[in-house]
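[scheduler] slot 2 assigned
[scheduler] job type: sequence-to-structure, two independent chains
[scheduler] chain ordering preserved from manifest
[runner] begin chain α
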Amino acid sequence: MRNSIQQLALVLAVGLMSVAGPALAESLRFFAMGDAPYSEWEFMQLDGLLADVGDASPAFVIHVGDIKSGSSVCTDGYIARIAKLFGSVSAPVAYTPGDNEWTDCGRSGGDPKQRLAALRRDFYGDPAVLRLATLGAVHPDPDYPENYWFSAGGALFVAVHVVGSDNGLNRNETDAETEWRARSAANRTLLKGAVKAAKGNGARALVMFLQANPLFGDRDEDNGFAPFLADLEWVLMAFPGFVLVIHGDTHHYVLDHPLTDPVSGEAELRLTRLEVPGSPLVDGVWVTFDPDADEPFSFSRSGAEISSQPGGP
């Protein structure tokens, strides 16, 4: 008799679960930051900030590059120190390189090509540093390990190697333009693959993160960001969902819709730009993605909720 009652209870429980329908998708919460640390004091601040962020259990941390000041000397020892710090965070760190750690190293006597090779070795060659494999990251081109995408919470995230200082185009090196063209082509291939993956996964949003402020709306073809801006226009046509672009570079917090529809002249509301704050402020922005919400992204700083309707600085 007891077994029959238990079996009946189990059947009723399963029936109630089916009537209730599938569980709602959980929101995804992550922390975005960049342009830090620029000094020893800021390194100490970053150490404490990342420990606090880790205690809050984000799905991952995004760092959009510039892990040093542009005027400081570029060394293997410094890169190894930042890599060790990133590896100590309790969550994976989705990092994309900045100009200060490679393209601008010629200012202090360094070789940009060697500095980029060192970044690839220490951050992407050692899986224990960023732990991107735990996010299921896909690196489509072994020559550009810093280019990758991963899916999380109903969105697809893609790291695009676009840096400040005109995207490295105006470096005082004979092969600067050749490198820029090759990297721009690799970025385009990356974004095509990412959009295909996002559509195949049924992702509601595509999140692109890069170091540079790409000067949205600048149509100058001589601009080092022109290839990325053209790619972004293609993404908006090819991907029907929301697009969030996270970047650093100018160190000011900005949340807005930076592009306008060329026909109507109205803001392109599917595209949101988040620029994270930077040095001398060592901080970031909490981002929550709820795939079931009408406005799927919400943002907060230091515990203060920010309107999900962007309006500028």
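[runner] end chain α
[runner] begin chain β
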Amino acid sequence: MDRDAEPQPPTPPDGPAIRAFYDDFTRKLIRDYVRGNLRQARAFELVRSTIGPETSSILDVGCGIGASSAAYLEGHPNATVHGVDISPNNVQVARTLFASSRLRFSVSDMEGPPGDQRYDLIALVDMHEHIPREKWPAFHRTLGSSLSDRGTVVMTTPSPLHQEYLRAHKPEGIQVVDETLVLGDITELARRLDATVLRYEWVSLWHTNDYVHVVLSRAPRFVAIPRRARWVLPARPPAIMGRAEDLARRIAARAGRARRLRHVRKALGVSIIAVILGLAEELRAGRDSGQRPVHGEGQLTSPA
């Protein structure tokens, strides 16, 4: 062995390894859906804010178990969502949890178009960083061919500061592929899509400036703002939010937990949820209170 040879970079994981990793991620995604997840809630809010009356078709890339896809339909009765994920396990759960004529789910690694249509909006919620960098050109071509001529791309991603923090202090939080996107990567993506960067904002969730929210558009809107709306002040930054207001928001965010738990129990079955979520005590409390467990037709048969 040549001791003077330069060390070779590690071989990037292949498709099957990435797929297996996210098959094992299903448990966490169900847990986040039931308990609520601040990062996801803020990301879903960003995507919904870009959906307009003209938005009829949405592609949700990296849809996981489908919670994001279902969220995008809220308040938009004319929209349909196609959720795609590299994990067959996630897609199976999504089809069971969120069966709807306006939702469809399929397995895709986005190396080619996931369907034969073009979409008005493509959502990439905490997804782009999990594509190996050497595959970005092909991924961007797929996005470009899947986006309509007047389409919008909405993306959330960890900030470089957040990625540096994980690598230095919490390496167990790094996923099988976890790239760092910087501003230059965003402008390059916009160039490849022939789109304009409408929004590039560092937001603060658990740390200051730990996530980035991005909106790209092939046809930026330019319409008059009603006079009554021109002097509306933006929301206060979280840093100056009062304790009472913070408590109220926390309570509101958790108010739907029981409803979501009932939904998951009905769709997937009580025994498997107790295993996956570690919520045996909550399920037992529900039975003790007289709530009869319901097993759904799409019940899973194993934690995987």
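[runner] end chain β
[qc] chain β: The longest strand covers residues 147-158.
[scheduler] slot 2 released
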